[in-house]
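Lab channel / #folding
Pinned by the channel admin:
"Please post every new chain as: sequence first, then the C-alpha coordinates as a reply. Keep commentary short and put observations after the output so the thread stays searchable."

First post following the new format, from NK:
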Amino acid sequence: MRTVPAAVAVLLLSACTSTSTSSPTSEPAPPPTATESAGVNCEDAPEEVVGAALRLRLNHPRQTITDNVVRCTYDGGTTEVRFETGADAASFAEGRAEHPRATDLPGFHDEAYRTTEVTGEVVLTAVTARAGTVEITVTSGATADQAQQLVSALFAAL
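Reply from TO:
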Protein backbone atom coordinates (compact mmCIF):
# COMPACT_ATOMS: atom_id res chain seq x y z
CA MET A 1 0.00 0.00 0.00
CA ARG A 2 2.88 2.36 0.63
CA THR A 3 4.15 2.05 -2.94
CA VAL A 4 1.03 3.61 -4.43
CA PRO A 5 1.32 6.95 -2.52
CA ALA A 6 5.06 7.02 -3.24
CA ALA A 7 4.44 6.44 -6.95
CA VAL A 8 1.80 9.19 -6.99
CA ALA A 9 4.22 11.57 -5.25
CA VAL A 10 6.93 10.82 -7.83
CA LEU A 11 4.47 11.44 -10.69
CA LEU A 12 3.31 14.72 -9.17
CA LEU A 13 6.88 15.85 -8.59
CA SER A 14 7.91 15.05 -12.16
CA ALA A 15 4.83 16.83 -13.52
CA CYS A 16 5.71 19.97 -11.55
CA THR A 17 9.32 19.77 -12.65
CA SER A 18 8.49 19.33 -16.33
CA THR A 19 6.01 22.22 -16.24
CA SER A 20 8.50 24.62 -14.67
CA THR A 21 11.32 23.76 -17.06
CA SER A 22 9.22 24.14 -20.18
CA SER A 23 7.81 27.56 -19.36
CA PRO A 24 10.97 29.67 -19.69
CA THR A 25 11.69 28.24 -23.13
CA SER A 26 8.16 28.94 -24.35
CA GLU A 27 8.53 32.71 -23.75
CA PRO A 28 10.15 34.54 -26.68
CA ALA A 29 13.28 36.55 -26.02
CA PRO A 30 12.72 40.31 -25.95
CA PRO A 31 13.54 42.00 -29.24
CA PRO A 32 16.88 43.80 -29.34
CA THR A 33 16.81 47.55 -28.96
CA ALA A 34 17.88 49.72 -31.89
CA THR A 35 21.17 50.41 -30.12
CA GLU A 36 21.90 46.76 -29.43
CA SER A 37 21.15 45.85 -33.02
CA ALA A 38 23.48 48.62 -34.21
CA GLY A 39 26.22 47.07 -32.07
CA VAL A 40 27.13 50.25 -30.19
CA ASN A 41 27.90 50.00 -26.48
CA CYS A 42 30.29 51.28 -23.84
CA GLU A 43 32.96 48.85 -24.97
CA ASP A 44 33.35 51.34 -27.84
CA ALA A 45 34.36 53.99 -25.28
CA PRO A 46 36.72 52.19 -22.86
CA GLU A 47 37.85 54.09 -19.80
CA GLU A 48 41.52 54.07 -20.84
CA VAL A 49 40.75 55.66 -24.24
CA VAL A 50 38.29 58.21 -22.84
CA GLY A 51 40.53 59.09 -19.89
CA ALA A 52 43.66 59.46 -22.02
CA ALA A 53 41.96 61.70 -24.60
CA LEU A 54 40.41 63.93 -21.94
CA ARG A 55 43.50 63.79 -19.69
CA LEU A 56 41.39 62.53 -16.80
CA ARG A 57 41.77 59.50 -14.58
CA LEU A 58 38.58 57.55 -15.11
CA ASN A 59 37.49 54.07 -14.08
CA HIS A 60 34.49 51.79 -13.64
CA PRO A 61 32.40 52.65 -16.70
CA ARG A 62 28.68 52.10 -16.30
CA GLN A 63 26.34 51.62 -19.23
CA THR A 64 22.70 52.64 -19.47
CA ILE A 65 20.66 51.84 -22.59
CA THR A 66 17.37 53.58 -23.29
CA ASP A 67 15.85 52.87 -26.70
CA ASN A 68 18.52 53.95 -29.22
CA VAL A 69 20.74 55.80 -26.72
CA VAL A 70 23.71 54.36 -24.85
CA ARG A 71 25.12 56.43 -21.97
CA CYS A 72 28.54 55.61 -20.57
CA THR A 73 29.48 57.22 -17.26
CA TYR A 74 32.76 56.85 -15.42
CA ASP A 75 33.97 57.22 -11.85
CA GLY A 76 36.62 59.88 -11.39
CA GLY A 77 34.79 62.89 -12.76
CA THR A 78 31.63 64.11 -14.36
CA THR A 79 32.37 62.48 -17.70
CA GLU A 80 29.77 60.96 -19.98
CA VAL A 81 29.95 59.54 -23.48
CA ARG A 82 26.59 59.25 -25.19
CA PHE A 83 25.95 57.28 -28.39
CA GLU A 84 22.71 57.68 -30.30
CA THR A 85 21.99 55.41 -33.24
CA GLY A 86 19.47 56.11 -35.98
CA ALA A 87 20.40 59.80 -35.98
CA ASP A 88 19.78 62.01 -38.99
CA ALA A 89 19.92 65.71 -39.83
CA ALA A 90 16.40 66.30 -38.44
CA SER A 91 17.03 64.60 -35.08
CA PHE A 92 20.37 66.40 -34.81
CA ALA A 93 18.71 69.78 -35.48
CA GLU A 94 16.08 68.98 -32.84
CA GLY A 95 18.78 68.28 -30.24
CA ARG A 96 20.74 71.35 -31.29
CA ALA A 97 17.63 73.53 -30.81
CA GLU A 98 17.65 72.62 -27.10
CA HIS A 99 20.95 74.55 -26.78
CA PRO A 100 20.39 78.06 -28.18
CA ARG A 101 23.78 79.29 -26.92
CA ALA A 102 25.71 76.43 -28.52
CA THR A 103 28.60 77.11 -30.89
CA ASP A 104 28.51 75.29 -34.23
CA LEU A 105 31.63 73.41 -35.29
CA PRO A 106 31.59 73.63 -39.10
CA GLY A 107 33.59 70.96 -40.93
CA PHE A 108 33.65 68.63 -37.91
CA HIS A 109 32.09 65.36 -39.12
CA ASP A 110 28.67 65.69 -40.80
CA GLU A 111 27.58 68.34 -38.31
CA ALA A 112 28.59 69.31 -34.78
CA TYR A 113 28.30 71.85 -31.99
CA ARG A 114 29.67 72.45 -28.52
CA THR A 115 28.13 73.83 -25.35
CA THR A 116 29.51 74.98 -22.03
CA GLU A 117 27.63 74.86 -18.75
CA VAL A 118 28.85 76.47 -15.54
CA THR A 119 27.44 75.27 -12.24
CA GLY A 120 29.13 76.96 -9.31
CA GLU A 121 32.82 76.33 -9.86
CA VAL A 122 32.29 73.37 -12.18
CA VAL A 123 32.61 73.98 -15.92
CA LEU A 124 31.32 71.22 -18.18
CA THR A 125 31.92 71.21 -21.91
CA ALA A 126 29.88 69.05 -24.27
CA VAL A 127 30.75 68.31 -27.87
CA THR A 128 28.06 66.69 -29.99
CA ALA A 129 28.73 65.43 -33.50
CA ARG A 130 26.92 63.30 -36.05
CA ALA A 131 28.53 61.07 -38.66
CA GLY A 132 26.06 59.11 -40.74
CA THR A 133 23.44 57.60 -38.46
CA VAL A 134 25.47 57.81 -35.23
CA GLU A 135 25.58 60.82 -32.95
CA ILE A 136 28.19 61.05 -30.19
CA THR A 137 28.20 63.51 -27.29
CA VAL A 138 31.15 63.82 -24.93
CA THR A 139 30.49 65.80 -21.75
CA SER A 140 33.28 66.45 -19.25
CA GLY A 141 35.41 68.98 -17.46
CA ALA A 142 38.01 68.71 -20.23
CA THR A 143 38.52 71.31 -22.94
CA ALA A 144 36.44 71.39 -26.13
CA ASP A 145 39.55 70.48 -28.16
CA GLN A 146 40.13 67.37 -26.04
CA ALA A 147 36.47 66.39 -26.35
CA GLN A 148 36.61 66.87 -30.14
CA GLN A 149 39.69 64.65 -30.36
CA LEU A 150 37.86 61.98 -28.38
CA VAL A 151 34.76 62.21 -30.57
CA SER A 152 36.93 61.73 -33.68
CA ALA A 153 38.71 58.75 -32.08
CA LEU A 154 35.36 57.17 -31.14
CA PHE A 155 33.97 57.60 -34.66
CA ALA A 156 37.17 56.11 -36.11
CA ALA A 157 36.78 53.04 -33.87
CA LEU A 158 33.15 52.35 -34.86
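NK: The helical segments are 3-26, 34-38, 47-54, 89-97, 144-157.
TO: also worth noting, The chain has a mean pLDDT of 82.
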